[in-house]
Write a structure and sequence with these properties.
The chain is α/β, with parallel strands linked by helices and 284 residues long. It has 2 domains: 1-44, no CATH class; 55-283, Rossmann fold. 42% of the residues lie in helices and 17% in strands. It is built from 10 helices and 8 strands. Strands 1-2-4-3-5-6-7-8 form an 8-stranded mixed beta sheet, with helices on both faces. β3 (86-92), α4 and β4 form a beta-alpha-beta unit. α1 (3-13) packs antiparallel against α2 (19-30), α2 (19-30) packs across α3 and α6 (144-160) packs across α7 (175-186). The longest helix is centred in the C-terminal third of the chain and has 19 residues, at 265-283. The protein is globular.
Length: 284
């Protein structure tokens, strides 16, 4: 896949242009409108692909609890059955909402022995729609203070859960990675934060961070990587505990195995292994 095409799609999916303008530019790059339309299924997520951990896996208990303190805020909870003292992990989705891929990621964490909650940040607005364009519009309309408050409510829910151990961390992807960085600034009780290719928190807020951070970044992700130097300098200057890993030659969203144009198996497996070890180290 031409990197310029992926950059164009990133600009579109992050609100930088209309669908009409995107398709016109894509057609110019691909050579025709027909070629552009043929590329779309490769650029978009394909949720028909088999999940790593299927819905209804007997090794897990899954529920859709209401999150106390916020009207209509809901999540997707996955945990091993008959287990106590589980470390909590909030899973924060991309700007497409709580879709089948993020539910699968939540089940993967549940299977690894975590009390995993995939929060639907669009649930107070009626829930994540099937149409990804509508989901992105919904995410774009959320206020930053709402995102922080709802994330903190979810973390409090996990810390109080009867099957939990009183600790809770967060893992986020793309938009959710940025939400993790901001939660680290806002919530002093965050046990650990893992941000996959997420926008950085403002450097002036770094002094408030208490949680250890694990930051995964894609080598070809120019848009997000532009903010790394200032963020890392602030983390170092404030003496914060963090790990930062670059994965050369891979694209933004390299962990998303429902996206043929971006998924990189080797990088995703390496980052996932680091994520599990980091969460176990700091939350158990």
């Amino acid at each position: 896949m031409n990197p310029r095409i992926l950059q164009l799609y990133d600009t579109f999916t992050h609100g930088g242009m209309s669908r009409r303008d995107f398709m016109e530019k894509l057609a110019g790059m691909a050579g025709s409108l027909a070629a552009a339309q043929a590329l779309l299924p490769i650029l978009q997520n394909d949720y028909a692909l088999a999940p790593a951990v299927p819905e209804g896996d007997p090794r897990l208990v899954t529920t859709t609890p209401d999150i106390p303190g916020v009207e209509k805020l809901k999540g997707y909870l996955a945990r091993p059955p008959k287990a106590k003292g589980l470390p909590g992990v909030l899973v924060i989705h991309e700007n497409r909402g709580l879709n089948p891929h993020i539910q699968d990621v939540t089940r993967r964490l549940g299977l690894e022995g975590f009390l995993a909650l995939g929060l639907d940040y669009l649930s107070p607005r009626g829930g994540t729609p099937r149409d990804e364009d509508e989901a992105r519009k919904g995410i774009g309309a959320l206020k930053p203070e709402e995102v922080l408050a709802w994330g903190r409510a979810a973390l409090a829910f996990l810390r109080r859960h009867p099957e939990g151990n009183g600790k809770a961390g967060a893992v986020g992807f793309c938009w959710g990675g940025g939400a993790v960085n901001n939660l680290a600034v806002a919530d002093p009780d965050l046990g650990a934060g893992v941000a996959y290719y997420g926008m950085q928190a403002r450097p002036e807020g770094v002094a408030a961070i208490k949680a250890p951070l694990l930051l995964h970044h894609a080598g070809l992700d120019e848009r997000i990587n532009a903010g790394i130097p200032a963020y890392e300098a602030a983390l170092k200057g404030a003496g914060k505990t963090y790990e930062l890993h670059h994965y050369p030659g891979v694209n933004h969203a390299f962990n998303n195995d429902t996206n043929a144009a971006r998924y990189d198996k080797a990088a995703a497996e390496l980052a996932w292994g680091r994520t599990l070890a980091f969460l176990r180290q700091h939350l158990k």
